[in-house]
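Long-time lurker. I teach an intro course on protein structure, and each term I like to show students one example going from raw sequence to a predicted 3D structure in token notation. This year I'd like something fresh instead of my usual example. Would anyone be willing to generate the tokens for the chain below so I can use it in lecture? Attribution to the forum is fine with me.
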Amino acid sequence: AARSVDNEASPRPVPSWASRLLSLFVAVFGLTPYLGLRNYPALAMFSNLRIEGGKSNHLFLADDFDLTGWQRDYVTIHETDIRALQLLQVDLGRRFTPATLRSLASVNVSSEFWITPPLAAWPYPATQPFVAYSIPFIELRRRLAPMRAGGAKGSVRYTRTWARPRFVFAGLWQLLGRKIQAEDRVVTNATYDLSVGGDAELEEPLPQWLASLARFRSFDLDYSPCRH
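-- Reply from a regular --
Happy to contribute to a lecture. Here you go:
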């Protein structure tokens, strides 16, 4: 006898609330760099996309949804003897094996592989001589405020920049009535000494929830090797 075929469609599985919440979390977490909340760690950290400093290299996202402004208020570290800043960026490419370096060189691929280790997560010496870099001011504050409170020593020389926002579509800012900064503002040759203090903004510790949320990597507006 011929087998009967059940043509009734199988019921579609209903996503659980846990899976829905997990999906929402992943989606929001993936958007955090473009919302200006954090970019380290973030899902975009392996994409080589950058929106810091008001100079996005993204095809269709710039500062349109970055309402915090943290990534446009940044400092360029020129010199420092503070270990937490000296090792804020590390070139892991310097630790590749000779065979790996030869393989990369054979196909004309740079071995540079910069990371921003969490505080106290890099117990080794620097992998390279100090190279100037930029970070959001809030990241500098997140690192230095506890050190100042703990009596640490050291100094840093930097330039601080408040970059004007760049938009693909400025409609959201106009809708929210946000004031749009017309020009970049720059303060050059600023210095800070942990032993002396004197910068109330820099010395104010971030609330714990904000220190956990707002975490940023180093960047360079003029040079963009692989950064994580």
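Some talking points for your students: The mean pLDDT is 90. The chain is about 25% helix and 15% strand.
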